[in-house]
Prior knowledge:
The chain is an alpha+beta fold and 183 residues long. It has a domain at 112-173. It is 23% helix and 21% strand. The strands form 2 sheets. The protein has a 4-stranded antiparallel β-sheet with strand order 4-5-6-7, with no helix packed on it. The protein has a 3-stranded antiparallel β-sheet with strand order 1-2-3, with no helix packed on it.
Amino acid sequence: MTRNRQIILLVVLVVVAGFVWSFETNKHTPAMQMAISIQNYKPLAVENPQIRWPELERAQKTEYKSNGRNPFSPVAPPKPGDIPKPKPKKIGPEPPLPEPPKPTESHLPPNLKYFGYGTVPTGSPRRAFITDGEDVYIVTEGDTLLGRYRILKIGNADLEFQEISSGLPGKAPLEEQAAPPSV
């Protein structure tokens, strides 16, 4: 670097330092800002700052009378003309309510057949074997079958399930298939 460039760089750095120094000296510290705000404080214009004893005693002797409105609620109380009159009560027994319809059992589609169950020796839950023609599904308790049935219990004689869309329970009997003829 030549001597002229060094001098120009020194001058530029001194000018930048001067700008930074001038901006920093104009800033006030928080303590100085607080002192300035205290000096500029103007008290409220109060004629007589003394306690007014007669007004205080009068306020203490007042008695609260409610108008029926809850002071903590934004809802206004009903007007006296808006209050509905009570309906006369009927004398005699009330008619019984109709009983809700009892849910019926759901059934697996005829193409699905529960044909067996099994367990793995490691103590895992029982598994049910369900066939749909050529396809075989293996499910455990709590699984869903075809996204439509939740398996509740796998028993020796039947399979308990629940249809997910309607919540109806159902049972499918264990269907034993005949052994194929030996060759």
